[in-house]
Amino acid sequence: MISKKLEDAINSQINKEFYSAYFYLGMSAYCTSLDLDGFANFFHVQYQEETFHAMKFYNFLLERGGNVVLAKIDTPPADFKSPLDVFVKTLEHEQFVTASINNVLDLAIKENDHATASFLKWYVDEQVEEEATVTKLVNKLKLIGDNVGGLFIIDNELKARVFNPPAKGE
Ligand code: FEO
Fold first, then answer.
1. What is the 53 CA–ligand 1 centroid distance (Å)?
2. Contact 78, 27 (CB under 8 A)
């Protein structure tokens, strides 16, 4: 059975993951409005990944005998200046999520809840990957600056991204 404190922390994390899904869905819509279909695809896949992250927490909490309490999802930003701005905001958001996951892990360690600590390791690794991917894209977009040709090359690359839900245990 999971502690009340950890149950609250995981419920809060479920909300943050669903907010992330909403956040990226809005970015996908913005990119579609610019006819940047690859960028829109990237964020649509990100939206699917975040929904997966939320549901993974949801299933874990139920498995541990906790109560899932769904809270209101905040309105995500809708004003973006450019594709670079979207990726800078994405990086800031992922850094925020990483800090939040680390806090939940700190709590699990403090409470000697090994099952939760082990479960959270997947998210710790996932955050490293997400921050690395987004940092690379921020850097590439800074490099190309106002070069429209470069923007279309990146847009083309981002069309290839697909959502692959990890198998159980991965
Ligand atoms: Fe669920 Fe992008 O962290």
1. 7
2. no
Continuous segment of H or E residues that includes residue 144: helix 114-144
Identify the domain containing residue 60 by its residue range.
4-71+79-158
Q: What number does the ligand 1 atom closest to the CA of 46 have?
A: 2
Query: Which atom of ligand 1 lies at the shortest distance from residue 54's CA?
Result: 1
Question: Does 103 reside within a domain?
Answer: yes
Ligand 1 touching residue 15 (CB < 6 A): no
21 found inside a domain:
yes
CATH of the domain at 25: 1.20.1260.10
Which atom of ligand 1 sits closest to the CA of residue 97? 3
Q: Which of 92, 86, 109 is nearest to 158 (CA)?
A: 86
pTM over 0.70: yes
- Does residue 167 lie in a domain region? no
Domain count, the chain: 1
Q: Is 9 helix (H, G, I), strand (E, B) or coil?
A: helix
pLDDT digits (tens, 9 = 90+) for 28-70: 999 999 999 999 999 999 999 999 999 999 999 999 999 999 9
The answer to whether residue 49 sits within a structural domain is: yes
